Automatic annotation (TrEMBL):
SUPFAM superfamilies cross-referenced by the UniProt entry: Periplasmic binding protein-like II, Winged helix' DNA-binding domain
Protein name per the record: Probable hydrogen peroxide-inducible genes activator
HTH lysR-type domain sequence ranges: 1-58
PANTHER family listed in its UniProt record: HTH-TYPE TRANSCRIPTIONAL REGULATOR YBHD
Organism encoding this protein: Mycobacterium nebraskense
Family statement drawn from the similarity comment of this UniProt entry: Belongs to the LysR transcriptional regulatory family.
Pfam assignment, any one: LysR_substrate
GO function term, MF aspect, one: DNA-binding transcription factor activity
Keywords: DNA-binding, Transcription, Transcription regulation
Length: 321
């Protein structure tokens, strides 16, 4: 099968419009439509429902996208870097990720990086921001996806914003269509992260600003333990949708938006000034990380807003990430 047709299919699925996809690809719209018809004939299925507003995937089309997007991207990366000296780099690279991001980012990111750098051994450490920062400062972690921190020993580049939702057990009355006021959190037994940075910091700062008293009934540094406590009906917690979406879909948890005010938190990539990576290698790692995050958020796989900063914070000479 012609992989170009698969690329065209994936671009149309992403744009939701044949005309927009044609403009992005630099292909005439009639020619693009013909390629999709040929792909549908080859497969014997209909991939898109056509409407006056654009196109959307059929059930068969959605299955094709979910099964081909990642492998096709890995193939493209492997071909792109096959002749590059970067493909011959042999070393280890340890990524750190906060628990709420690891479940949605780790697998697709490592698949992308492995395709580009087949001789690099990638490892992932999952921990809260405070612990990851300490391990980076000791040289035990190369790069980390963390919440923002005020530490002038780190370079930090913003990546995404995630809205936070209230999460309850399967018998709670939470609903995605019924927002819960932030002040109502004061009446709930909350399961909160042990670490002061990240979601707990967001909750406590918002409560302080609104003069609302919230307390933790339970504290844990484990995302899975927090969700287990909530599923058992012992309390409520606050998470980004990406960290609880599968549990909500399976009926193990329920969630509702938070309002008055809506609350969110940021995630970005951090490194230390002492980062010891070849310059070009570090640059490519950063590019692929941002491309992968952009792809995941645009596709809806990661319920977050991709908002990369254009500079590091604080103002140090920028490492090439």
């Amino acid at each position: 099968m012609d992989t170009h047709r698969l690329k065209y299919f994936l671009r149309i699925a992403e744009e939701g419009s044949i005309s927009r996809a044609a403009a992005v690809l630099g292909v005439a719209q009639p020619a693009l439509s013909r390629q999709i018809r040929l792909l549908e004939e080859d497969l014997g299925i209909v991939l898109f429902h056509r409407t006056r507003r654009g196109v959307h995937l059929t059930e068969e089309g959605e299955r094709l996208r979910s099964s081909t997007a990642a492998p096709l991207r890995q193939l493209e990366l492997a071909v792109r870097y096959a002749g590059s000296p970067l493909a011959r780099i042999e070393r280890g690279l340890l990524f750190g990720m906060v628990p709420t991001a690891a479940g949605v980012l780790a697998a697709p990111l490592l698949a992308t990086l492995s395709a580009a750098f087949p001789n690099v051994h990638f490892r992932v450490a999952v921990a809260e921001t405070d612990e990851l920062v300490q391990r980076m400062l000791k040289g035990a972690i190369d790069l980390a996806v963390i919440n923002p921190v005020s530490d002038d020993r780190l370079f930090y580049r913003h990546l995404v914003v995630e809205d936070l939702v209230l999460v309850g057990g399967p018998t709670s009355d939470l609903s995605p269509t019924s927002p819960v006021c932030f002040s109502d959190l004061a009446t709930l037994p909350l399961v909160m992260p042990s670490a002061a940075t990240g979601i707990r910091n967001t909750l406590e700062n918002t409560a302080l600003r609104l003069k609302v008293g919230i307390t933790a009934r339970f504290s844990t540094d484990s995302l899975e333990v927090a969700k287990n406590l909530v599923e058992a009906g012992l309390g409520y917690t606050v998470l980004p949708p990406a960290a609880c979406g599968a549990d909500v879909d399976a009926g193990r948890l329920r969630c509702a938006p938070i309002c008055e005010p809506e609350i969110s938190h940021q995630l970005g990539v951090a490194a230390t000034a002492a980062l010891e990576l070849p310059r070009e290698f570090a640059t490519k790692i950063g590019i692929l990380l941002r491309e992968e995050v952009a792809r995941l958020t645009k596709s809806g796989f990661w319920a977050a807003r991709f908002e990369p900063s254009h500079s590091w914070d604080p103002n140090f000479p920028e490492p090439q990430l």
